[in-house]
Amino acid sequence: MRVPALFVFALLMVFGPAGASRADQSLTKDFRTFLETAIWPEAEAQGVSREIFDAAFAGVEPDLDLPDLTLPGETEAVSPINVQAEFKNGSDYLSERALAETVRSGKALLETHAGLLDRIEARYGVPAPVLVAIWGRESAFGNATIPHDAFEVLGTKAWLARRKEMFRTELVAALKIASNGDRAVRDMRSSWAGALGQPQFMPSKFLDYAVDFDGDGKRDIWNSVPDTLGSIANYLKEHGWQPGRDWGFEVTVAKGLSCTLEGPDKGRPISRFVEDGAARVSGRPFPGHELAGTGHLMMPAGRKGPAFIATPNFYVIKAYNNSDLYALFVGHVADRMIGAGPLVAPFASTDGLTRGDVAAVQAALVDKGFDVGGIDGLAGFKTRRAIGAVEAELGLAETCWPSRDLVEALGPL
Question: For 165, phi and psi rounded to 5 degrees?
Fold first, then answer.
């Protein structure tokens, strides 16, 4: 069991070395009790055998190094640190350094797998560059090391994470994958979040959306390129991908077009956004077939970064990973693979606010009656809109982005 150094130090100060050992044993015992009383009955009810259950947890102990855990006796709180890359600064996530290798390798793979990708697009309606971009982002086209034991990760998070119910569902789903014979227990490796295989599906998503595209009788998202790409395509299709439409367009936004109009719930014809001062950075008009279609203003860093008119397909990509920057990465890489240039507008430097700082801002906004979409320390579109509205109330320039100026204007948080 890996126990954080500060936690061990505190135990040593109070109990000495023997006390720390007893605490380790106590945590492991509580973990085992949790698995037996909370997880086994549900797994058994869903057809998981005792043999599979015991094999999955043989030698497994809670991994206390995983992020977003609340140890027994601690108060549940949002982690003050931005752990997941998708929720850090967009200038890092969408830098040329981050993009270049994915674009270069993606172009080559579009050619290598052209026939396969044509067949997948014909069946599911999702363009090949989008599929390859997701493949590259999720697992470096299958080359990334998947370091963790899935049952250790999911078991720990089902016991100690903030979103316990979600991880309990995912843990049982992982047991079902092994029970169904899709993957041997010993080969169930995952990310620190519990995601599996080359598409990085959470276990429940594997059960719902993985496909056997190569026809060998197995849904193998670990080793089969056809199954990997077909499964990604099936996921997007089932989440509403609209064939024939783009994912979005980088735009300039006139001052009169408020950033508080952003969001998937504020869609309107793209022609209306054009009338109100949105223009493509390329200088070209929007494609004629897109003008009458629904568009959405999307400003992932408020007025401190690039702006986009996104189509509903942007939000389908976002359903794959609930991050604006992730969906932008995928859409932009897909465009770059077929000849588009870099983003024009830069992401401005941030004020150094942490995830914990943003959570405090969100709490203050909720106290003022604003809907921020949840106090999670992540500046999603509802938080950005609420910031823009409160900035107007406080006489600040409308940015729709958390800042030191806003923190000072809101007073003690």
Answer: -60, -40
Query: Contact at 8 Å (CB) between 170 and 177?
Result: no
| Whole-angstrom distance, CA of residue 77 vs CA of residue 258 | 33
Looking at residue 187, what DSSP letter applies?
G
- Beta-carbon count within 10 A of 404 CB: 12
* 183 φ, ψ (degrees, to nearest 5): -155, 135
Rounded to an integer, the average pLDDT of 384-389 is 97
- Alpha-carbon 330 to chain mean position: 12
Indicate the pTM of the whole model: 0.87
3-state secondary structure of 243: coil
Give the per-residue pLDDT at 114: 98
* Burial (CB count within 10 angstroms: exposed 0-12, middle 13-18, buried 19+), residue 50: exposed
Closest to 174 (Cα-Cα) out of 35, 352, 344: 35
Tokens for 383?
Answer: 């938080």
Question: Measured between alpha carbons, how far is 183 from 177 in angstroms, rounded to an integer?
Answer: 6
**Among the listed residues 300, 402, 247, 246, the one whose alpha carbon sits nearest the alpha carbon of residue 92:** 300
Q: What are phi and psi of 280, to 5 degrees?
A: -65, 140
Mean pLDDT value across residues 301-326: 96
Owner of token pair 């047991």:
175
* Distance in angstroms (rounded) separating the CA atoms of residues 177 and 127: 29
Q: Which helix (H) or strand (E) holds 152?
A: helix 150-160
Average pLDDT over residues 5-12: 40
Whether 253 shows a pLDDT value over 50: the answer reads: yes
**CA nearest to 161, candidates 64, 82, 76, 69:** 69
Residues paired with residue 300 on neighbouring β-strands, in sequence order:
302
What's the angle, vertex CA 352, arms to CA 349 and CA 357, rounded to 5? 135
What average pLDDT does range 393-400 have in this prediction? 94
- Across the range 276-283, mean pLDDT stands at 96
Per-residue model confidence (pLDDT) at position 84:
41
- List, edge to edge, every strand of the sheet that includes 268-269: 268-269, 294-298, 307-310, 248-253, 278-280
What pLDDT, on a 0 to 100 scale, did the predictor assign at position 162? 87
